[in-house]
Amino acid sequence: MYLLGIDIGSSSVKVSLVDAVSGECVGTHFSPEQEMQIIAPKIGWAEQDPETWWVNFKLALSAVLSQSGVKSSDIKAIGISYQMHGLVMVDQHFKPIRPSIIWCDSRGVPYGEKATHIIGEPLCFQHLLNHIGNFTASKLAWIKEHEPQNFEKIHKIMLPGDYIAMKLSGQPQTTISGLSEGNFWDFKTDKISKNLTSYFGFSEDIFSDLVPTFGLQAEVSKASAAETGLAEHTPITYRAGDQPNNALSLNVLRDGDVASTAGTSGVVYGVSTKYSYDEKSRVNSFAHVNHSKENPHLGILLCINGTGILNSWVKKNFFPNKSYSEMNELAKHAPIGSNSLVVMPFGNGAERILNNREIGASFQHLSLTSHSASHVLRAVQEGIVFSFVYGIEIMQNMGVNPKTIKAGYANMFLSPLFAETLAGTTGSTIELYNTDGSIGAARGAGVGAGIYKSFDEAFSSLKKIQIIEPNHQTEYQNAYQHWKKTLEKGVNF
Fold first, then answer.
1. Among 176, 164, 213, 172, which Cα is nearest to 449's?
2. How far apart are CA 192 and CA 190, in angstroms?
3. Any idea what DSSP says for residue 472?
4. Distance (Å, rounded) from C-alpha 488 to C-alpha 493?
5. Which 3 state secondary structure label does DSSP give 304?
6. Contact in structure between 254 and 291 (CB atoms under 8 Å)
7. Hey, which bits of 181-265 come out as E strands?
8. Taking the CB of residue 167, how many other CB atoms lie within 10 A of it?
9. Are 230 and 220 in contact (CB under 8 A)?
10. Would strands 88-90 and 173-174 be described as parallel, antiparallel, or unpaired?
11. What residues have CB less than 8 Å from 316, skipping those under 6 apart?
């Protein structure tokens, strides 16, 4: 008996098979081997063809089934994780009308700002818990104004994970968590926001049918079974955006729990049972996977767009012949604070913690006599961590005070220096686990299918592989304050 987890990222699509009894991952594969293309017709724009996700899902699935030897008939449930905030529009034949406008696209910013001003900040915060912001709703508003011919063709809108579920089942569906991340959900009325749809002129007919985050959502269709090799009628029982799902994969479900990721973008995600918000919407509140009106659970999400993408840019352009582990080792030769070299990682679109500004990535206080490659590499990792800490200070004002931060042993957390810097600067213990988004989605599917009777049972096999305690806190805090002073001097808030 196996569970299938699918993780639709912006770089690749990853598929994992988990043994439902032992909890062990018996097969995993991602596609493509090189990063998926992000289409950028203009600076600040970012698009992907939804069919690219589907093609790479099929390739990854085929590899996993072949490698593991698992029969598709033995897969008892499917869970889906996906890149958040993307806009997919399909016509009456369920075909994409245009490429998806994805999470790091900035063109919706002025639409969200204008809507927030006209609807009113108090109403937005009380009902949506956020400014309208640069989320899915604002991306759709851009389409309505600039591509009216495409807007008229819309049969349904959906998020990237909803699109893959629709390709599997033939049914367009979404969840409260998904509508919340798009900034469509009214937490006061527990419905799609009429204030927002009325302001933008969106018909509620374009929204997909609502299904629970956990539970029987749909089944693999006959056509999809023939195309993918999955068994017809295999149930789809879970879906969530990548950050709520990452928190789920780490069993971060209770008030005060905190998770983090550091892939292309970086996230700190805290769970709260209170309807709290940041008055500048620099940190955002969404419905967590276990949210309900009767038992609220919100994900307080800090997102830094420029995280692993900065590290990979540095590697590609300056250290192409070094592995990431070699880069990490070289960075350790520099002292904490990198001899005052400051790196700002904000080069991947508008940053929410900077009030949706695009200030670009930068290297500051660079000395041609005092700094070497090791200083540069350490300053890159410190700059990423310090951007996290800057956002965590905002989260603390909302009542999220991380004592322990859980993360999967992947991406930037593979670097001991990165984890040590985060622990030392925040004073938090860092716990690293043997999991990722696709494995978490598989376990979520087990919960949704009733194979696991509780979250504790679903995550009983989760293995903690490393603990990093905070050290050198004074030195790290001094380095952070220097970084923060440089940031605030350069950005007029």
1. 213
2. 7
3. -
4. 8
5. strand
6. no
7. 185-186, 191-192, 209-210, 214-219, 235-241, 258-262
8. 21
9. yes
10. unpaired
11. none
Which residues are bridge partners to 156 per DSSP? 90
Residues 245-266 have pLDDT tens digits of 999 999 999 999 999 999 888 9
Spatial distance between the Cα atoms of 104 and 95, rounded to a whole number of angstroms: 23
Structure tokens at 432: 């690293």
**Residue 348 confidence (pLDDT):** 87
* Cα angle value 42/48/53 (rounded, 5°): 170
Shortest CA distance to 172 belongs to which of 160, 181, 185, 162?
162
Q: Is 363:322 a contact under the CB 8 Å cutoff? A: no
Nearest to 2 by CA among 438, 410, 433: 438
* Cis ω before 41 (30° cut-off from 0): no
Count Cβ atoms below 10 Å from residue 255 Cβ, excluding itself.
14
Written as one string, the DSSP assignment of 275-289 is ----TT-SSEEEE-T
Which region, left, alpha or beta, applies to residue 295 given φ > 0 means left and ψ of -120 to 50 means alpha? beta
H or E stretch at 303: strand 298-304
Q: What is the largest CA-CA distance in the chain?
A: 67
pLDDT value at position 270?
Answer: 96
Q: Which of 29, 101, 35 is nearest to 67 (CA)?
A: 29
Question: How many residues are given for the chain?
Answer: 493
User: How crowded is residue 66: how many other Cβ atoms within 10 Å of its Cβ?
Assistant: 12
Q: Summarize pLDDT for 46-95 with one digit per residue, the tens.
A: 999 999 999 999 999 999 999 999 999 999 999 999 999 999 999 999 99
Q: Which of 39, 128, 127, 125 shows the shortest CA–CA distance to 86? A: 39
- CA distance linking residue 87 with residue 322, whole number of Å: 37
Residue 478: what residue type? N
Residues of the chain short of pLDDT 50, as ranges, are: none
Tokens of 411: 């991406």
Q: Are 453 and 366 in contact (CB under 8 A)?
A: no
> Could you write out the DSSP letters of every residue in 123-139?
HHHHHHSS-STTSHHHH
